[in-house]
């Protein structure tokens, strides 16, 4: 066993995240790209008018018809975004993000975005270990991308979920608005977000531990602040610092950059040794303050998007854009409200005929329906509007009546038409002008009662989906309360979520399909959170029986296994965990294998002396199988840490030290790092390396002060100090 691990452990610990041979695909022609782009835009048009299913079909056809075109990557991303954000189908979304993250995609920005969202899918699915690995890859492979902020964000949230508060804080402190390392370029920072300074300098690789770099930030509005930058990682050539920004009047040296829309921030740092051998040369970067605009049509509280606009009621408009907060007073922004009706079949046919005659419309190679290239809506009127800034800086609002009339200078419409808010965002974090829109359908009736006409709010399924999202949000709020130990508040939120789910279950059974499947999933999650294990088990079994090909099958089996493990029915739990490994392409195989080891370990703790040794051996082999068979699992670091603990119990201190060092260097997000440091220190102590042992105990105390074993580590350090070590 020892020779096997010494020989193969370094290999398994250094496997890349996507260890597969890249598939060589010939680059598509310009003609294919043009056709793929038209089809992609046709899908965009369908989504814009609420025909979501048709949009997904069109985007999927881009991938199928044009497998060599670079446009296919954009289609993958559109599909993935919709599956992740709207449908919450994390497994299917991840597949499309992975397809867009391959090296054949020549757009590094889109690859970074795809990589990031692969990790997001794992986070949303509760697979934090796998999420950590992906996010670390984003940081390593795209160090100057703005996606690293989101990567640190999810690493921090994942550690928070797992109760690793010091690591959560460490990661979350790195979240903000990043600057690239390129010199002499005007970059952009979003007002109100954390402003991050990243400097790439090879001289930083030789900085002494604890060294910091100071930069000075000066705004055209008169604020001046110092930002302290720390090295990122070991022997890193990049340092990073952050400072919060706020829309407000300048107040120098208060730790916050006060800015206004359009301000410029000048960043200065002293380079101790430039490439030209000039010392202390000032490096300058100028950054413009912008805001990514958001346009919304909302209810009267301005909190929720409006599902439908009722004739005779007020239409509440809101634009958020920091660019236009330029004075101490209430600033204004301009926008347009447009009203559309659907084109008649005759109008579409006439437009189609003109387009073909002019050569503007061409039939695709697979007989693509040309009507899909025709905009289905016709604008009947446009009304310019002025929105006024509120006390909340950068937020502009207006309430305007929606009438059924022909009066001049009023906003009018008819049932079945669509009203759209259009805002032109000239300055934003991207390139060029962005046209931002928000729309809703016009109906007769009262949204507060049951008189919403079925003709215009697409229907019962839309209502049920909205309810299901409400239940999901309530469950998440309950989970947050539970994390803080506020069990009474958590149970109240779970009960609210349960009421919503049980209310829609009867209707969901009538609709069937994905809606019913997702209702079952939400119910089992609520039951499990409430410790109603029998109900959770029953609901997950119902899902498996009625939806055997569901993408949630492996998650359901994992949940069932967790229930049995919580009940200490370990043999049943082990069988369920093992069954997950038989599901093709499941990302939870490593999870199942890891928890198999934990079951054997729990059994060993309760067994007699004679039986415990064999059970510990089974646990050890189960953990070993994680990195042997599932090297890209998020549980590899945890498994190796567990193995090292077994070596310590067997008093094989030298082998344990080797494994501890590998975990600390290669798996910064592994669980049990406080236990690893503690046992590492004890191993070094046993090996008569007491000064090195003290360093490990101090490392534990410094990085994991909330750990249960930090107090014990502190006692050992004090004893070592008295002994002169």
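Q: What amino acid sequence fits the structure above?
A:
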């Amino acid at each position: 066993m020892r020779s096997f691990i010494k020989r193969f452990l370094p290999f398994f610990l250094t496997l890349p995240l996507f260890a597969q041979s890249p598939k060589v695909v010939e680059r598509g022609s310009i003609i294919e790209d043009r056709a793929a782009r038209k089809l992609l835009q046709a899908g965009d048009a369908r989504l814009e008018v609420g025909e979501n299913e048709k949009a997904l079909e069109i985007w999927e056809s881009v991938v199928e018809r044009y497998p060599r075109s670079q446009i296919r990557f954009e289609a993958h991303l559109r599909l993935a975004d919709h599956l992740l954000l709207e449908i919450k189908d994390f497994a299917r979304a991840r597949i499309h993000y992975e397809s867009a993250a391959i090296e054949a995609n020549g757009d590094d920005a889109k690859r970074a975005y795809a990589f990031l969202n692969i990790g997001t899918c794992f986070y949303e699915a509760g697979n934090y270990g796998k999420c950590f690995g992906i996010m670390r890859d984003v940081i390593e492979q795209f160090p100057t991308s703005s996606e690293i902020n989101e990567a640190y964000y999810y690493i921090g949230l994942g550690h928070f979920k797992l109760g690793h508060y010091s690591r959560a804080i460490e990661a979350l402190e790195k979240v903000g608005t990043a600057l690239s390392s390129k010199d002499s370029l005007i970059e952009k920072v979003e007002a109100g977000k954390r402003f991050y300074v990243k400097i790439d300098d090879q001289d930083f690789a030789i900085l002494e531990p604890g060294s910091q770099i100071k930069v000075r930030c000066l705004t055209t509005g008169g604020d001046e602040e110092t930002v302290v930058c720390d090295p990122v990682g070991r022997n890193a050539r990049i340092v990073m610092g952050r400072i919060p920004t706020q829309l407000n009047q300048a107040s120098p040296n208060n730790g916050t950059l006060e800015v206004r829309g359009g301000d410029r921030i000048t960043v200065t740092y002293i380079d101790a040794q430039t490439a030209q051998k000039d010392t202390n040369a000032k490096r300058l970067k100028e950054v413009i303050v912008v805001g990514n605009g958001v346009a919304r049509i909302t209810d009267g509280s301005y909190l929720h998007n409006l599902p439908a606009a009722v004739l005779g009621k007020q239409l509440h408009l809101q634009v958020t854009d920091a660019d236009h907060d330029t004075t101490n007073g209430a600033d204004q922004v301009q926008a347009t409200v447009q009203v559309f009706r659907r084109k008649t079949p005759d109008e579409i046919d006439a437009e189609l005929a003109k387009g073909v005659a002019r050569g503007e419309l061409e039939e695709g190679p697979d007989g693509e329906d040309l009507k899909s290239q025709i905009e289905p809506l016709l604008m009947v009127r446009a009304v310019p509007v002025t929105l006024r800034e509120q006390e909340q800086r950068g937020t502009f609002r207006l309430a305007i009546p929606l009438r059924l009339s022909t009066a001049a200078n009023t906003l009018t419409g008819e049932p079945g038409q669509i009203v759209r808010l259009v805002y032109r965002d000239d300055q934003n974090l991207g390139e060029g002008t962005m046209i931002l829109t928000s729309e809703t359908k016009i109906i007769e009736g009262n949204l507060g009662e049951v008189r919403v006409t079925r003709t215009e709010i697409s229907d019962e399924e839309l209502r049920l989906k909205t309810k299901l999202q409400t239940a999901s949000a309530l469950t998440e709020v309950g989970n947050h309360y539970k994390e803080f130990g506020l069990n009474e508040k958590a149970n109240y939120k779970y009960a609210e979520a349960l009421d919503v789910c049980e209310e829609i279950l009867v209707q969901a059974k009538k609709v069937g399909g994905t809606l019913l499947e997702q209702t079952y999933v939400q119910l089992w999650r609520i039951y499990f959170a409430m410790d109603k294990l029998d109900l959770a088990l029953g609901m997950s079994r119902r899902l498996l029986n009625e939806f055997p090909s569901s993408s949630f099958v492996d998650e359901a089996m994992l949940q069932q296994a967790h229930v049995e493990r919580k009940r200490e029915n370990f043999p049943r739990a082990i069988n369920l965990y093992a069954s997950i490994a038989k599901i093709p392409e499941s990302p939870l195989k490593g999870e199942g294998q890891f928890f198999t080891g934990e079951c054997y370990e729990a059994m060993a703790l309760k067994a007699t002396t004679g039986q415990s040794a064999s059970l510990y051996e089974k646990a050890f082999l189960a953990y070993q199988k994680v990195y042997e068979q599932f090297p890209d699992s998020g549980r590899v670091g945890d498994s190796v840490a567990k193995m090292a603990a077994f070596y310590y119990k067997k008093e094989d201190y030298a082998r344990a030290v080797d494994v501890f060092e590998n975990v600390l260097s290669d798996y910064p997000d592994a669980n049990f790092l406080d236990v690893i440091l503690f046992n590492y220190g004890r191993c070094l102590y046993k090996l008569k390396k007491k000064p090195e042992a003290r360093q490990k105990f101090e490392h534990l105390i410094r990085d994991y002060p909330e750990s249960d074993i930090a107090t014990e580590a502190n006692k050992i350090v004090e004893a070592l100090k008295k002994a002169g070590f």
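Q: And what stands out in the fold?
A: The longest strand covers residues 377-389.
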